[in-house]
Amino acid sequence: MLRKLNLFCLGSSAALCALLILSFAGCGSSSSSSAIQVSGSDTMVNVAQKWAEVYMETNPDIQIQVAGGGSGLGIASLIDGDIQMANASRKMKDEELKLAQENTGKEPQEFVVGRDALAIYVHKDNPLEEITLAQLADIYGNGGKTTTWTQLGNKVAGCASDEIVRVSRQSSSGTYVYFREAVLGKERDYKQGSLDQSGSKDVVDLVAKTPCAIGYSGMGYATDQVKMLKVVGTPDSEGIAPTVENAKNGSYPIARPLLIYTLGQPEGKTKIYLDWIMSDDGQKIVSDLGYVPLK
């Protein structure tokens, strides 16, 4: 279109040419700014993209642009005022809430839009069926002594080295932060040497092709190439599987809310879209993709 305007300018006055190009630029900017910009949690990116796809089918005049990148990136974009909605698999920190208000003059609002069980994945041929939170902390946590499958009383076919290959997430990920707080404890950091992945799907894909590996990711990313372990929360409890029902009733030890943050109370098309996400239609998508709906 712009090339056509430039060709038109060859035979027109400079004033008319400038007016047309400015009008075209204004229209392009308006179109872009009218889109609902969504960014953040890789755990939520599948469901966020599906929400957008289904919603735009019945509301073709609304454009919704979804990006992942991790909860930290989404929250940073919200703080800068660049997006309308930040997907997060962790809560915003106090300093982030304060910075957002200082930068934009608006207080971030939190909305729970579903729940997720953080599953522990191993290769499909791994005979292990359950693991305790204490064992996970010793595998992943700084100073932990568990480094081989034999130490867990386990022998893995195809894992000649016996070494546990730790698959983790990048530090900007909400999943990374949540796992540290829920499993390692807020005061304990991760052990060095893990294979840190940029996305939830990447974790599961790497575990699927690495017999020696263990990893953590949302249960919605399970495939038939991996196994999700039962998790034992306390010494006197039994292993609990990461299922929708167990996440809903609170028995699974590492379940968490899925969050959307907005700057101030959402208004206009953003509010309408968020209300739809929390409606039966939006929550059906949460359920269909393996997450836990609100109702």
So, the CATH homologous superfamily of the largest domain?
Periplasmic binding protein-like II
Number of helices: 11
Backbone shape: globular
CATH class of the largest domain: Alpha Beta
Percentage of residues in strands: 15-25%
User: Roughly what percent helix?
Assistant: 25-40%
Task: Provide the domain count.
Answer: 2
What low-confidence regions span 5 or more consecutive residues with pLDDT below 50?
1-32
- Give a short account of the largest sheet: 9 strands, mixed
Mean pLDDT over the full residue set: 89
CATH-defined fold name of the largest domain: D-Maltodextrin-Binding Protein, domain 2
Head-to-tail CA distance between termini = 48 Å
Number of strands: 11
| Oligomeric category | single chain
How would you describe what is shown here?
- The chain has 2 domains: 35-115 and 257-288, 3-Layer(aba) Sandwich (D-Maltodextrin-Binding Protein, domain 2), CATH 3.40.190.10; 116-255, 3-Layer(aba) Sandwich (D-Maltodextrin-Binding Protein, domain 2).
- The protein contains 11 helices and 11 strands.
- It has helices spanning 2-9, 14-33, 45-58, 71-79, 94-104, 133-140, 174-184, 200-208, 244-249, 268-277, 280-288; strands at residues 36-40, 64-69, 85-88, 108-123, 130-132, 165-169, 195-197, 213-218, 226-228, 230-232, 255-263.
- Strand 1, helix 3 and strand 2 form a beta-alpha-beta unit.
- The protein is globular, with a radius of gyration of 23 Å.
